[in-house]
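Let's inspect a concrete specimen:
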Amino acid sequence: MERAYLGETGVCVSRVILGCGNFGGVGSAPAFFGGGESPEEAAAIMDAAWEAGITTFDTADAYGGGRSETSIGDWLRTKGPEVRDAIVLSTKTFNPMGEGEDHGLAPARVKRQLESSLRRLGVERVQMYLTHDWDLDVPIAETLGVLDELQHAGKIEAYGASNVDAAQLRQALAVDLPTGYGWVQNSYSLLDRGAEDELLPLCAERGLGFTPFSPLAGGWLTGKYRRNEPPPAGSRMTLRPEPYEHLQDAAVFDLLEDLERRAVERGTTMAALAIAWLLANPAVTAVVVGPRRPAHLEPALAALAID
């Protein structure tokens, strides 16, 4: 498995990152807590990822209401030190852990949430910690101040930002701190290219890493959604369609059909070609993929071999 340094943080990640957002739920949506992959299914996915050389696992405190971190921690406890010491853990905070619970990036909450994440993961520190969204109610200097404090305390090795725009990132980078945000994790794919306008150039200019999530646009780049056909039962478009409803457009289906033709010509799949397109971008450090079962890792692994 190829590896790369995450910007200037000194953290080395596998170029394919295992996204664990469906362990025990569907992302941070409380309505789906307890759904998604069971602990046994999650363990099988992590086993397959490890065997494939994927050593970076990405989660969040609110994924599955804490169930994702718990699944990872339980899996790590079954492994020897050669596995535990090799896994690079990335987790995040912002979203509520349940209906009606608090959220945000106030310093006291960030400290509390990190401690709860460490307990669920069964570790004393995580290499990567992200703010999961931008908090309009808390000055960014306060949030970055507590992250810097946690870094100096050895609780986290580096910290980054997720779901930020270029203006927000500039504001954060203007805060006078020894380190600051080291990378950005935003949605980016052939069907979501907004990051190219300002965010990716800013990351490159300031030496920040970039680890896109949703590289397959919620499954749209796999070929499962067809023109004039209903979405497959159990697919993202039947469970949580809101982020992707705008893709039900003739121009999108034109792009998908063209991608399918190109994949056939190259003897590969649409999904592998879409991920390879991301990996070929020098601004992309690594790609976060969220398989629902072990076989779903195959396109990402095949992408590494596409020139």
About this structure: Residues 3-218+270-303 form a domain with the TIM Barrel fold (CATH 3.20.20.100).
